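One chain shown below:
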Amino acid sequence: MKRILIPAVLIVLSMQMMAQNEVDALRYSYLIPGGTARTTAMGGAFGALGGDITSLSTNPAGMAVYQQSEFTFTPAFEFINSNSVFLDNRTGDFDYNFNVNSFGYVATSRFNKEDAGLKNINFGIGYTRLNNFHQNILISGDNPYNSMTDWFAARANGIHYSQLQNDDNFYSSLAWETYLINQVSLLDTLNYVSVNNGVYGQNTRHSISRDGYRGEWDISLSANYNHTLYFGATFGIQPVRFEQTVFHRETDADDAIADFNSFSFKESLYTKGTGLNFKFGFLVRPVEWVRFGAAIHSPTFYNLSDEYSTDLTSNFVSPQMSQTWYSKYGYYNYQLTTPFKAIANLAFIINKFALISFDYEYIDYSLSRLRAYDYTFIDENMAVQDEYTGAHNIKGGIEYRLGFLSLRAGAAYFGNPYSSSGEINNSAHTMMYTGGIGFRTKSFYLDFAYANLSNSEQYFMYEGLMNSPVSDITKNTSRFLTTIGFKF
C-alpha cells in the first residue's frame, strides 16, 4: 500500500454528535407492549373489559372494574430469531431473554350504600414492559458493487485531512488514520479515494447486537359510577435502556485489491433515560353485554443520554502491517417527545361464558421531536416529518369459559410507521398471533399465553452519500408468559 506522505499536525479535538436522529425518534415511539398472560392471549385487546393490571398502561378506566383487591405477577421468556438475505446469501442468528413482563397491585375501596352513585374508587400501581430490544442479526456475502471504504471517502470529501478529527471523528477520520482512504493527489487535498480504488467483490460480514428494554411504571386512580360509567387516569414513568454494537468486516479473500487484506469497524451506542406521560380513559356499560370506551395517551417526554464510540482496524500485506484507531468517547444529553396515542375499545360479553374484544389505536409517528439546549435538530426533525406517518393498530381477541377453565385466542396488526414517499420500508408492519389458557377461582388464578410476532425490514449497512446493497431482514419472536394472581 502506498500513501501520500504528509507532515504531522496538532489537531484540537471537539465534541461531535454521532447519534440522535430520526431512527432514535422511531425506536422510542414505536412499541408492542406486553402485559399479563390473559391480555396477551387475547391479542392485547382488553381495553374495554378492564379488571386486569394491564389496564393501567392502556385504558386506566378498566381498573375501576375491579371489585376486589389484587396482586399479579407475570414472568416471560422470549426467543428472537432473525434471518437476513444479502445479495442472495442467507444468514441467521438468534437471541433470548427472560424478563418480568408485568406485575402490579390494585386496592379497592367500595361504598356500601345501595343508592350511592359512586360504587368504588380504586388505586393501582404496576409495571409493564413496553418494548424488548434484544436481537442479534448477521449479514454476510460478497459485495461486487462498493465498499464501506467508499462511504468513508465520500464522508471525507470537501474536508482537509487536518480537520477530519474535528469534522468526522467517528468515521472518515479513523479511515484516514488506518490508511483506508487517501487524498486523490498531492494537489487535491479536499477529495479522497478509498483503498478499493474501484475493485470490488470483497467478502462482507456485518453483525448487529441489540440489548435493552422500554418499560413503564404506572400509578393510577379510577372510579366506578353506578356500574355503568368508569373513569381512570394514570401517571406513567418510563425507564429506557438501549445498547447496540455494530461490527463490520471486509476481507479481500481473492487478493484482488492491491496490498489490502481486510478491515474491521465497530460502532457502539448506549442510551439510557426516563420518560413521563399521562393517560386518561373512560368506559361505558350501557347494557350488561356491551362495553365500549376510549383513552388518550399524552406524548411521552424523555430525557435521554447517549454514550458512543467507534474503532477501526486495517490489515495490509504490502507492507505487512496492522493499524488500529479509536474515536474519542461521545456523550450527549437530549430530549425526545414521542407522539400522543388515541385508543377506542369495544367488547361483547356473551352470557358470561364468552368474551369478544376489539381495540383500535392511532399514532402519528411524524409528530416525534428531538430537542436539546445546544442544538436545534432542525434537519433531524424534518427527516422525522418526511419519513414517518400516522399508523393504525388493530387488535382482537376472544375468550371462552368452561367453568374454572378459560380458552383464549387473538391477533394484532401494528401498522407501518413509514411514509410512502420513497422510504425503503414503506410497507413494513408487525403481525402478532396469540393464544392461551387460564385457570381461575375466587381468590387465585393462573394464566398461560403464547404470542408469535413477525416483521421484516430492509437495511443498509451504510447509507447516505453512498448506499450499500440492501439487506432483507426478517424477525420472528416467540413470547411465553405466565401470570399468577391473588384476589383478596
User: Anything to note?
Assistant: The radius of gyration is 27 Å. The first helix runs from residue 22 to 27. The chain has one domain: 22-487.
